[in-house]
Each structure stands twice: as C-alpha cells, then as structure tokens.
Amino acid sequence: MEGRVVLITGGSRGIGKAIGLRFAEEGSRLFINFFQDREAAEKTAQEGASRGAQVFPLQADLKDAEQIRGMFREVQRLFGRLDVLVHNAASGVLRGTMDLTAKHWDWVMATNARSLLLCAREAVPMMTKGGRIISLSSLGSERVIPQYGAIGVSKAALESLTRYLAAELAPKDITVNAVSAGAV
Fold it and tell me: Is-catalytic flag, 155?
C-alpha cells in the first residue's frame, strides 16, 4: 500500500481510525474525513504521521453533496488520483422504528447510504484500474436489533448499493466490497 492514496470517511475515531492507522503503517497517503471533531482528526493525523505516513484531515458533512465534492477536489488537487475509498462514516438514531421522525430517517439514510453513492461518483473518475471502494456495514442490515431500525435499514441499502456498484464498476477494474463485522 506504500504510496497509495486512501480516503477514509469517518476516519478520525473508532473503526475508521484503526483502519487509517493500519494504512499509515503501510505507507499510504491518507485522507481522514471527519464531520465535527477536528481535534480527534488532528490527533489521528499526528498518530498516522508518527508511523511515517502523510495524513490530511478533511472536514465534510457527508449529507451535503457540495461538501463531498469539495473533499474530493482536495484529494485531486494534492495527488491527482485516489486508489482506495473506505466508506466508514455512519450516524444513527437509536429508537424504535415507529418512534422515528422523518428527520431521523433522512439523517441516517443520507449519512449511511446516500453518501456512499455520492462519494463513489466523485471517487471513480479519480481511480485507475485496480481502484478499491470498501463500505462498512453492520449486522443490523440482516438482523432485527431493537432500537436499530433506521441504522439497520440504511446498512441494508448500503449493502445493496455496494452490489450494484460492484457490478457496474467491474468493467473498469474497480472492486467494490462491503465489510460487516460482528458486534463492536
């Protein structure tokens, strides 16, 4: 992965941070997207840099198409390409499905599923053969988990979108996969 250009959404903490630091250890040029917590993103960038990587925090609200475009313009400006997109950013509302408001639903679907489409649309023109898009899913996409309805449905949509992108991008030699780990 040395020299590869990698963007991780939601990369400043948790699973995204762990993924980013692993890419940093491999010598990737790493972009860490964050939504609000600049301090956490800068700390993650420092940790990645201490492992020998170039790390760039990028603030963007993934519910906003223009902010997504701006994030990818910065990647393009600095390196002219993107090799790997890890779509890790997620948000959720822990409520019973019948207690969700339209605002809750729209927030979760936009952050967890719609943003994968918007990010892929920006990433693909920057990728060459061998590009990779990896989305992170959840067991809630297949199982009913109490208070997890909006998140579970959004992750099921993300998995379905991942399959469609995989089929459509295969002729370009861009691989698209989802990872769904157990409970974290």
Answer: yes
